[in-house]
UniProtKB/TrEMBL annotation:
Protein name as annotated: HTH lysR-type domain-containing protein
NCBIfam families: argP, PRK03635.1, PRK13348.1
Domain HTH lysR-type: 2-58
Keyword Membrane: no
InterPro entries per UniProt: ArgP (IPR017685), LTTR (IPR050176), LysR_HTH_N (IPR000847), LysR_subst-bd (IPR005119), WH-like_DNA-bd_sf (IPR036388), WH_DNA-bd_sf (IPR036390)
Keywords from the UniProt entry: DNA-binding, Transcription, Transcription regulation
Family classification: Belongs to the LysR transcriptional regulatory family.
Keyword Transcription regulation: yes
Superkingdom field: Bacteria
Naturally occurring in which organism (per UniProt): Pokkaliibacter plantistimulans
Family matches, as Gene3D superfamilies: 3.40.190.290, Winged helix-like DNA-binding domain superfamily/Winged helix DNA-binding domain
Length: 294
């Protein structure tokens, strides 16, 4: 049988990326947390953590972490059934993309908080990378552009986020006065959210036969800063149409090639394990997606 005090220590170390912070969360000494991890490894006969910087779980450690997260969700659901008026909160770990978080996810999380007393712990990644967090067991669900079905999980197609590439008229005059082509795109800087943001790379590869090495780009990892870089004429970039409707209508931003589309499908992936709270989250996501996605 597994000792859940030992598993709780393992989960805390993985989540906090530190024995010291894990000890604070568990109200234990750092030595006590280390002893619990060593005892767990002795009982299992193999390591559960790689003592690197940052600390990371072994393959077995990751499986145990996934398991203890599932147990915590079930315990929280059972506690709510037993004591429906309890003041305790449920913590929910999800991976989401920054644009969805900025545009349409927060009202969903607000409803979930008020109805089920859920505290959100969000990992914000590019929509092409969030699924890896679910596969590794770090999160219970994710919003992803990938449709790959993960074993032990369900998938729901939410809709399509309509991305368009835009820049200021002055930027277009400076870099695209002779047209949008491979040569002009080699000179025009783009803006990316981070190094995992590949929309601009896919665009120039698909339509202009260019590679990532052909493009210069700013890297600005906030939604506001990303759009401001475009507004201030520093770059062109790919933005959900719903975020810049006013700028498009006023002509402050333009799409130099409106015939070239970059639709991004989005999916909700989640553990097959279901509780009333998770079922409610799924229905809220589906309802919000119908309003904001195509």
């Amino acid at each position: 049988m597994l000792d859940y005090k030992l598993l709780e220590a393992l989960a805390a170390v993985i989540q906090q990326q530190s024995f010291e912070r894990a000890a604070d969360v568990l109200c234990l000494t750092q030595s006590a947390v280390s002893q619990r991890i060593r005892l767990l490894e002795e009982r299992l006969g193999q390591p559960v953590l790689v003592r690197s910087t940052p600390i990371r779980p072994t393959e077995l450690g990751q499986k145990l972490f996934h398991h203890v997260q599932q147990v915590q969700v079930l315990e929280q659901s059972l506690s709510t059934d037993i004591r429906p008026t309890t003041d305790s909160y449920t913590r929910l770990r999800l991976a989401v993309n920054a644009d969805s978080l900025a545009i349409w996810l927060m009202p969903v999380f607000a409803d979930l908080f008020h109805e089920h007393k859920v505290l959100m712990e969000l990992m914000v990644e590019d929509q092409d990378c969030t699924l890896a967090r679910l596969k590794s067991g770090e999160v219970i669900g994710c919003v992803s552009a990938q449709d790959t079905l993960v074993p032990g999980c369900n998938r729901l197609h939410l809709g399509v986020m309509d991305y368009i590439w835009v820049c200021t008229p002055a930027f277009a005059q400076r870099f695209f006065s002779s047209g949008v082509n491979a040569d002009s795109l080699r000179q025009a800087p783009a803006v990316a959210f981070d190094r995992d943001d590949q929309l601009h790379v896919r665009f120039v590869r698909q339509h202009f036969n260019l590679t990532a090495g052909d493009i210069d780009f700013h890297m600005i990892p906030t939604v506001e800063g990303f759009i401001d870089a475009i507004r201030y004429g520093m770059a062109y970039g790919f933005v959900p149409r719903s975020q810049i409707r006013q700028e498009l209508a006023s002509g402050k931003l333009i799409n130099p090639t409106p015939e070239l589309k970059m639709p991004v499908p989005l999916y909700w992936h989640h553990w097959r394990l279901q509780t009333p709270m998770l079922a409610r989250l799924g229905s809220l996501l589906e309802k919000a997606a119908r309003q904001h996605l195509q």
